[in-house]
Amino acid sequence: MPTQSKSLRIPTADGQADAFAAFPGGGERHPGVLMYADGFGIRPVLRELARELAGHGYYVLVPNFFYRHGPAPVIELPEYIGEEARGAVFAQLMPLIEAHTAERVLRDADAFLTFLTARPEVGPGPVAVTGYCIGGLLATRTAVAHPGQVAALAAFHAPVGADGPESLAKLTAEVHFGHAESDLTPEGLGELNQALEAAGVGYTSEIYPGTVHGFTMSDTGAFDAAALRLHWERLLPLLGRTLDRGGELGRSHRR
């Protein structure tokens, strides 16, 4: 499906967040997806992911959640983030990540969802949130805080359990968590899945075999092409079940 894209500015309680949006052409309305970038932020690989998802019939909004520190890219990034570059890049990013408190996340989530659902290209009904790395935690916090509005949550190589298992109790969205093998032990996966089970939501939560943190990002040394394909194989059916059918939640529990 041919897509269009544009740069936008989202009004927030603390200023304006720059953002990237991708959506199908043709003037029709489509379900909305709020996509949170990884810690490296909006850059060509994120725009590519957003465009690919938009090509399946979704309006995809990617906000710069570090907007308080400037427009994306907030720090200068190499074209390829290999092992030799990661240390220096993270040394610049960590103060920004540490300053991005849960309070800020939720305040911004309100603004991002309000903006997304008001777009003329977005149809009525529930939306999905998805995210990568730290963006997966932001997506999880957004879904927990907006149970009546978010029908699907997907997070990849993300610290989704950072707020504790009890933080997932208010989830109503159907969930997919795709974990890196280097990020989560089988025991940790079991504890996380027990929390999802207790929440009573439909979910898949699995470790992608042989992966390291950041496996979806083709501009990093962590990239795994097979895992990226698996990411699409999990994400697209999830959105199809929860958004294309008017937000009806799938209830099958698969691990």
UniProtKB/TrEMBL annotation:
Alphabetized UniProt keyword annotations: Hydrolase
Molecular function as annotated in GO: hydrolase activity
Residue stretches making up the Dienelactone hydrolase domain: 18-241
Superkingdom classification of source: Bacteria
Protein name: Dienelactone hydrolase family protein
Organism: Streptomyces anthocyanicus
